[in-house]
Amino acid sequence: MKPETTAHPGAFDWSDEFLLGFAPMDEVHKEFVEIVGKLITAPQGELRASLDELAAHLERHFEAEDNWMRETDFPPRECHIDEHAAVMLSVRQVQSLLARAQAATQDDSDATARSLALALQDWFPGHATHLDSALSHWMCKRKHGGKPIVLRRNLSLRSGT
């Protein structure tokens, strides 16, 4: 379930629904959501700088997670690391497209940059829920001896089931 956005149509806003309970990961995820949200809503003249900011963030973000997985022998690390590499490849390809874009094709490359941001907005909840949550549990168990405790605010309660 994707959290509702509040600031701007199409914006990507942080939600406690994304909390996983491993503080270093939660902090980097908050930064990711903020940067992707900025890319989605960036004025045309700021798209390239926003994309570069995203690429720099993702390098640090994925390097940290990849290192946690390698250093602790996280069992399903290869699949997770491969997904990070695929996302970085897509970001690099869009950066390259923007760098090569001429004035006549600028609208197409701008649309591609925004499409990338929207794809990342769609990708992140599933990635966090399925891959990062397992890593968060693994890191908390290794560091604290148990699963993470996550306190979420402002989530609607479901009745029934």
Describe the overall structure.
The protein is mainly alpha-helical and 161 residues long. It has one domain: Four Helix Bundle (Hemerythrin (Met), subunit A). It contains four helices and no strands.
Keywords:
161 residues; mainly alpha; Four Helix Bundle (Hemerythrin (Met), subunit A); globular; disordered N terminus
Task: Provide the β-strand percentage band.
Answer: under 5%
Count of the domains: 1
Q: Any idea what the radius of gyration is? A: 17 Å
Helix tally equals 4
Q: Characterize the largest beta sheet: strand count, sense, and whether it forms a barrel.
A: none
Summarize the model shown.
Helices cover 66% and strands 0% of the residues. By secondary structure, it is mainly α.
List the helices and strands and how they pair.
Layout (H helix, E strand, L loop, with lengths): L22 H19 L5 H25 L5 H24 L5 H39 L17
